[in-house]
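Hi R.,

Here's the chain you asked about this morning:
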Amino acid sequence: MIGIYVISGIMIATAFLTAAFYVNEHRVVATIAKVVSSLGFMLIAFIALSKNFDNLLNLKYGMVMLTGLMLCFVGDVFLMIKELFTERTANLYLLLGVGAFSLAQIMFAIRFNMYADRFVYWLLPIVLIAPAILLVSHKLNIIRLEKTAIGLIAYSVIIGFTLVCALNLLIVNPSARSVALFVALAAFMISDTALCYTYYGRSVTLRRILNYVVMLFYYAATILLAYSILL
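And the predicted structure, written out as tokens:
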């Protein structure tokens, strides 16, 4: 457990450094710092999984979460590569990254629903919160959505549905794990919504500030998802 706490602390520190390096245009150094953070949540997941070999139910859950986190890591790799290329090539890697994250979120949503005894359908409008925020911001000229933003908006719907599934699990089957999952998915939504503003925001100052929000909330989310294997 102490090892997991140490790794988590290092992840948050390097996540902060990643944002700082991106803000100051040190993209190569930022990429290195982000690799450290992303390897951290994978390591936590492996440690947590190793402690569940004697519990078949937890082992199955852990394997699903580990697979989802591996897809998140792949998504991170694509987004890191994106930062090192010109705009046209970067857009391709952005969409590949969003695709990997989308698969991870779909996997999480399926697993959450399998654990829930029932589904509370009145929660579904929550799915539209993130895309509505982005579209309103576009209308207010706070951000400028481009063609590649369609993929991000679609992803915001997917992550919104995964958040609904996590909230549903918390309501119908409350536990320490369901609390961790809901907080993790809420952090994911905050991070990925803020990410759209860092890519398409018109205010340079806002984009720089939100870099920190993106990194800190994203790695807080992945730490909680990895740690949930132990709960």
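The chain has one domain: 2-230.

Let me know if you need anything else.
M.
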